[in-house]
Every structure is written in structure tokens, then in C-alpha cells.
Design goal:
This protein is of the alpha+beta class. The chain folds into four domains: about 5-120, no CATH class; about 125-240, Tetrahydropterin Synthase, Chain A, CATH 3.30.479.30; about 245-335; about 340-374. Helix content is about 55%, strand content about 20%. The chain contains ten helices and 13 strands. It has helices spanning about 30-50, 55-80, 145, 170-175, 180-195, 200-205, 210-225, 245-315, 320-335, 355-374, and strands at about 80-85, 90-95, 95-100, 105-110, 115-120, 125-130, 130-135, 140, 150, 155-165, 230-240, 340, 355. The strands form five sheets. Strands 6, 9, 10 and 11 form a four-stranded antiparallel β-sheet that branches. Strands 3-2-5 form a three-stranded antiparallel β-sheet. The protein has a two-stranded antiparallel ribbon with strand order 1-4. Helix 5 (about 180-195) crosses helix 7 (about 210-225) and helix 8 (about 245-315) packs across helix 9 (about 320-335). The protein starts with about 25 loop residues before the first helix and ends with a helix. Mean pLDDT is about 75; it is low at about 1-30 and about 50-60.
Length: about 375
């Protein structure tokens, strides 16, 4: 009997739908039933023709043959019944080639080998863990051959991540790729290595969300190119650290970098505090200098204007102006000196003098004493 799409779970090209064809179409149980029925008829024919005493057509009778034929017929017709669950999608092939797709419900089609059907679950979100094996709880087993990769700055990073995906086109999923889960894993690993090769170790550790998004976009583009009928829902970065052998040393380097960053921040804070203060002091000095300059210029202008006024008066009345200037100069000079008046024309050789400054001091002290006594 030629092996069709359902023979042994494999398709006409030596490949079979993965993760959705089990139990969907007429599988090996129906073929085995048909084969057993044929063998039974052959044995019965040999026994009846030989006239032996075993179970043959003579002993079986017409009723038994009809019942056996009905059983085989019902079993064959049952291969044309398709029941699609709400979360599934029914795909029907005719002579091994895709023919049509049905939604949830009860559907009839031509029996095998004319037509066959598959019911992949399109609502289930599948998960592919790459770089590790989840052992339950918080336990896991690392797979270095999948998780270790080289970054763009020449470091080695140990990346554990998960890929969540689901089916969005059943026909493409069943017939365009042979091993869907293996394909998703290979495509995601290739995308992760591509992104890691363009990033630094620090970016792989600190920018996990961005890395995961880039991996998702690249993997989805490759799967669309394959027409795999698969959508990558999310890429989850579990871990992204240096290998365990150098992790302690890397943490020491990271602590030193954090200390350097802290010292830099403190220096910048001190700079932000000192610079405004120095700027304010400089502004104050500049403003005082400008005020001094304006005052000196104003005084010089005043002196010049006064000199010009005196010059004009001197030109109008030189003698009067000269005498006035003399008196003003003498007033300025003698106003702060002690004066003694001597009468040179006194007779008798006695030089009378009048100590005006002492008289002024004594009169001032007397006035203070009078106020104190009062």
C-alpha cells in the first residue's frame, strides 16, 4: 500500500506536520485496521478453499462477510469526519496537497486516501527555551553551547532567553517547514548572535529590553521569509551575564566603574556649586569697577566744568577772580592750622600774641563742662 500523507505521520515529501496533526486525520490505527482486515480475508479464503477444518468462508457464512465488510466500510468512511475544536483550525489536503481550511465545528470530506485533515492548535502560545533547560521552580541547567556568544567589544556573554510563539497560518505551518520548534529555536539563536555581535557586553547586560526587541524583529523577518505561518509574540531575556568563571572579576570591575561614576558625579556637583559662586563674585567686582569708573568720570567732568566756569569768569574780570581764588586758597590752607597773631609794632620789646587755637580749645572744654554740670 503506498504511504500517503497520513502514513506513519509523514507527508508525501517525507516530512510531516509537527505539533498539530496528531489525531487530526486518519492515522496509523485506521491503516492497521485495514491491513488486518485484508489479512483476515486472505486467511479465511485459504482455509475455505483448502477444505480444512479451520475458520474459513464456509464456516464464516454470508452474514459474517457482510458484517466484516460493513465494519471496514464504516472505518474507511470515518476517515472523512473532521471535528475542529474552538482553539483549532482544520486543514484539508487532497492527494497530499493543501486544498482548504475550516473553522471550528463538525465537517465532512472525502475519505482517505483522497483527502486527509489536520487540526493544529492556533491558540496555544508555545515556548522555546534557548541556552538552558527549565528543571522546575528556580532550578535550571545551563547549555553553554547555545548560550555562550561573542559581543561586539570582544567579550563573551552567557545569554539565557525564551521565545514565545504561536501559529497564525495553519497551511504554511504544516507544509512549509518540517520542524517548526527546531526552526524557531535556530532562527532565534541566529538573531541573538547577530544582535550580540553588534553590541557591547555592557549593552547586553543593561539594555535587555532593547536587545529582546531587536531579536524579535529579526527572527520574525526570517520566519516571514520562510512563510512559516508563525508569529514571534515575545522574546524574554532571562540572564545576560559574563561566564561564571569570570563573573566575580567582572563584578569587581563593575564596582570600580560605579565608584568612578560616583566620584565624577560628586566632582560635577562641586563644580556646579563653585562656578556659580565665582561667577557671582566676578559679576560683583565688575559692577563695582563700572560704578567706580562712572564716579571718576563724573567727578572729572564736574572738575572740568568747574574749571571752565572759573576760566570764563577770569576772562571777564581777571583781578576780581584772582583775588577770590587767593582768598579761597588761603581759607583752605589756614582753615586747618593753628594761628598765632604777633604784633610786630608793639613797643617795649614785648611781643603780645593771641593764641586763637588754645582759646578755641579752652572755650570748647568749658562748654562741655557746663553741659556735664547741668
Amino acid at each position: 500500500m503506498p504511504e500517503g500523507r497520513n502514513g506513519g505521520g509523514r507527508g508525501p515529501w517525507g516530512q510531516g506536520p509537527q505539533g498539530g496533526g496528531q489525531g487530526g486525520g486518519p492515522g496509523p490505527d485506521i491503516e492497521e485496521l485495514l491491513r488486518r482486515g485484508q489479512d483476515r480475508f486472505r486467511r479465511a479464503a485459504r482455509r475455505g478453499g483448502g477444505g480444512g477444518g479451520g475458520f474459513g468462508f464456509g464456516n464464516m457464512g454470508a452474514g459474517g462477510l457482510i458484517a466484516a465488510g460493513l465494519i471496514v466500510l464504516v472505518a474507511w468512511l470515518a476517515t472523512g469526519v473532521m471535528i475542529v475544536a474552538p482553539a483549532e483550525e482544520g486543514v484539508v489536503t487532497r492527494f497530499g496537497a493543501y486544498d482548504r481550511t475550516h473553522g471550528p465545528g463538525f465537517t465532512l470530506h472525502w475519505p482517505w486516501p483522497i483527502e486527509a485533515h489536520y487540526t493544529p492548535d492556533i491558540a496555544q502560545v508555545r515556548q522555546a527555551d534557548i541556552g538552558f533547560v527549565d528543571l522546575g521552580g528556580d532550578r535550571k541547567r545551563d547549555i553553554p553551547i547555545d548560550s555562550l556568544m561573542l559581543t561586539g567589544d570582544g567579550n563573551i556573554v552567557d545569554v539565557d532567553y525564551s521565545v514565545l510563539w504561536f501559529i497564525n497560518n495553519s497551511a504554511n505551518y504544516l507544509f512549509n517547514i518540517q520542524n517548526p520548534e527546531g526552526t524557531v529555536r535556530a532562527v532565534a539563536e541566529s538573531a541573538m548572535r547577530e544582535v550580540a555581535g553588534q553590541a557591547s557586553l555592557e549593552q547586553m547586560r543593561q539594555e535587555r529590553e532593547r536587545i529582546a526587541t531587536e531579536v524579535q524583529v529579526i527572527a520574525q523577518a526570517v520566519l516571514d521569509e520562510y512563510q512559516a505561518g508563525i508569529v514571534v509574540q515575545e522574546v524574554i531575556m532571562r540572564e545576560s551575564d559574563p561566564p561564571p568563571e569570570v563573573l566575580d572579576a567582572f563584578r569587581d570591575v563593575e564596582a570600580a566603574q560605579q565608584d568612578r561614576e560616583r566620584a565624577r558625579n560628586e566632582a560635577e556637583a562641586y563644580t556646579n556649586q563653585i562656578v556659580p559662586r565665582a561667577q557671582g563674585e566676578a559679576d560683583r567686582i565688575i559692577q563695582e569697577a563700572e560704578a567706580y569708573r562712572e564716579r571718576i568720570i563724573a567727578e572729572a567732568d564736574g572738575e572740568a566744568q568747574r574749571f571752565l566756569a572759573v576760566l570764563e569768569e577770569y576772562r571777564n574780570a581777571p583781578n576780581v577772580t584772582r583775588q577770590r581764588l587767593y582768598y579761597e586758597a588761603m581759607e583752605e590752607v589756614l582753615g586747618t592750622t593753628d594761628m598765632i597773631i604777633v604784633d610786630e609794632g608793639a613797643s617795649g620789646g614785648i611781643v603780645p600774641y593771641l593764641p586763637l587755637s588754645e582759646l578755641e580749645r579752652s572755650s570748647g572744654s568749658d562748654r562741655r563742662e557746663d553741659r556735664g554740670g547741668q
